[in-house]
Write a structure and sequence with these properties.
This protein is of the alpha/beta class and 249 residues long. It has a 5-stranded mixed β-sheet with strand order 5-6-7-8-11, with helices on one face. Strands 1-2-3-4 form a 4-stranded mixed β-sheet. A two-stranded antiparallel ribbon has the order 9-10. It is globular. The protein starts with 7 loop residues before the first helix and ends in a 9-residue tail after the last helix. 38% of the residues are buried.
Length: 249
């Protein structure tokens, strides 16, 4: 997704149009970090506050409508305001309207994210259609202790990001590493385009299996990256190669 910076209307319209072309068997859609506004690096807090919403705001309400319409879960992040504090908030919305939220833990200090947002204290976890799913946000993926999959508590790790092209080699190494060490699928989405600070984003989005293999299937025309995930294959591998039993807490 190419994000129009600070233009919620255009970004939600882009999503609505994209979903018209979605594969009918799709069960889960993952969006880039702060998909509706872009990542507000280098901004003062009050400027960012003008872009923020509550969990009951327009962005989540529109997501709920789309999740119901297409019978898919939709996950991503948005700029949230709770009690006067701002958060980079991950969301997971089911077709039923059930909603789950958690705030980004590791704030990207090099861009001053910590000067604007408050950090979260828990990962997002959800049980969806027989899968245990966890979600982290962008910079979080650099921290293996935060992503740790203790006793196979998750089967799929979602990563929503605005990861610039200048550091994309690290992104491409960290994602399969998290998959291998946690014996889990990892689905990660990055945005495209150029932000208002001139940083380029190349849309490097991937789905890795539990062995670190790229299992992505790319629909270049509609800019979707697909994969079919198998619980049978995952469970079989965990039983055959139970490294998780020897993991450090």
């Amino acid at each position: 997704m190419e994000i129009m910076w600070e233009d919620k209307g255009s970004n939600i319209f882009t999503l609505e149009n994209a979903l018209k072309a979605i594969h009918p068997d799709t069960e889960l859609v993952l969006l880039p970090e702060t998909f509706s506004t872009g990542f507000p690096s280098g901004e003062n807090k009050e400027h960012v506050r003008a872009l923020s919403e509550r969990n009951t705001g327009e962005t989540i309400e529109r997501i709920k409508t789309l999740a119901y319409k297409y019978n898919v879960a939709i996950a991503g992040t948005f700029i949230a305001d709770t009690g006067g504090l701002l958060f980079n908030r991950a969301f997971f919305i089911e077709p039923t309207g059930d909603e789950y939220f958690a705030d980004k833990r590791h704030l990207f200090t090099m861009a001053g994210e910590d000067k604007v947002f408050s950090k979260g204290d828990s990962r997002l976890f959800v049980r969806y259609r027989g899968w245990n799913i966890a979600m982290v946000v962008c910079y979080d993926i650099r921290f293996p202790a935060w992503c740790r999959n203790i006793n196979n508590q998750y089967d799929l790790l979602l990563v929503a990001a605005n990861w610039p092209e200048v550091r994309i080699d690290a992104w491409k190494k960290l994602l399969p590493a998290r998959a291998i060490e946690n014996l889990s699928y990892v689905a990660a989405v990055d945005c495209m385009g150029i932000d208002k600070n001139g940083f380029k984003y190349d849309g490097s989005s991937f789905i890795f299996d539990f062995k670190g293999n790229d299992v992505s299937v790319r629909d270049e025309k509609n800019r979707f990256v697909y994969a079919s995930l198998s619980r049978n294959k995952l469970d079989s591998f965990r039983e055959k190669f139970p490294a998780w039993r020897d993991a450090d807490i």
